[in-house]
Structure formats: structure tokens, C-alpha cells
Amino acid sequence: MTEPMRYSWAVESHVGLVRSANEDSYAPRTDGIDDGPVLIAVADGMGGHAAGDVASRVAIEAATSNADDYAIDPVTRVEKANKAVIDAVTADPALAGMGTTLTLGSFGADGTLRLAHVGDSRAYLRRNGVLQQLTSDDTVVAELVEAGHLSEEQARNHPRRHLVTQSIGMPDVGIETVEFALTKGDIVLLCSDGLTGMISDDLISELLARGEGPSDAAWALITAANAAGGHDNTTVAVVEVDPDAT
To answer: Which of 108, 181, 191, 228 matches a 20 to 30 Å C-alpha distance to 125?
Structure first.
């Protein structure tokens, strides 16, 4: 009988050096190490005055309710989050305009990672020294890059790089899904754009490799984002995969 996959994780968040409040939310709220399945999610609220912090919190709470029930598909969880944010606005029109990104990963006992994603938070996989972005950014700039109108370097500093085309709280929101088979030694990163907007993928990969465990790696990433200016809230979830851990 195949042994269940074992995961070690840490989720950390920091307000940054510019913002007065943290509009990111995440789950779980504690670090851990355990056999799968494990459910991890990161949300980056949008709207500021329109309660981005409320949107991210409502989305995370809805998406990760009944977290131990892994029969619930990640897409269903994200759909629940979308309905919860829409319902919150219906109940309190003062919240109109709020929204959030949501990147949710279900890490299976068999090593299967199932992702459901909306917005410009990201999921990455680091394997054998190579960092791969697993999700696509739902942004105007990403669409321009895809169409060949902008280079990756131009996109990095584009003034509209944070303008999202999909967010939790929109009717008929588009949900991206990714399924990936994980192996021993993989590192998975879920993060808000407070990280990716401040430091390069090369530095992200280097810091993931350098970290002594998920919490150390997570704080190294946050520290680097703040050292680069800390213009936004930064939330990172680092998951190390080791099926032979005891």
C-alpha cells in the first residue's frame, strides 16, 4: 500500500512598509506538518475604502469551511467564496465594489495538487532547482503579454499591472483550475502580489531553496519584499513535499 504524502507548511503575512492595513487573508492560520490531504488558501482583498479586507476574509472563510471534507472540489470552494462575497455586498450596500483574489490549493494524500484560482495572486512549483508559475494572472497586462503587445520586462513596470480582469465578487467569475502530480522534494508557493510585485522569480526561487523549512523560507520572502520597498501587503504560503518524512 502506498504511504500517504507528507506535507510541511507555513503561512505568513505582513502589512508591508506603505499600507496602513493588511487586506490579505489566508488559511490555515497555523503552521504544520502532516499527511495529506491539506487545504491552503491565500486571498488579496481589493477596494481599500470598499472593504478589501472584508472581501478577503469572507472569501477565505467560505472557501475553507469544512476544511476536512476533501470531497469538496476546489472549484466548488471558490464558487462558495464568490457567492459569499456577493451576498455580503447585497446585505450591506456600503461594501459595494469590494473584491478579492483567491488562490486555493488542495494537497492530496496521493500527492495530487488541485488548484482553483482567480485574480493575480499566484501559485508556483519549485522542482529540481527550477521555479514554475502554475497559475495565470487575471490582469490586463498579462493579456497584453499573451497577445505579444508587451514583453515580460515591460509588464513588470507597467502602470496598469495591478488591474485585474477577474476577481471574487464578480458575477459569473472565471475560475482557473490546475492539477499537478507532486513528488518528494517539491516546494509549492502560494502568494499575494505583494511578493511578486517587489522581487523577481529568480530571487523567489533562491530564497525558497535557501530557507531552512517553510517558516524560514516564508519570512525570507517577506523580508526581501519589504527590503525592495514593501509597497503592498505580502502573504506567502510555503509547502514542502516529503513523502518519506517521519
So the answer is: 228
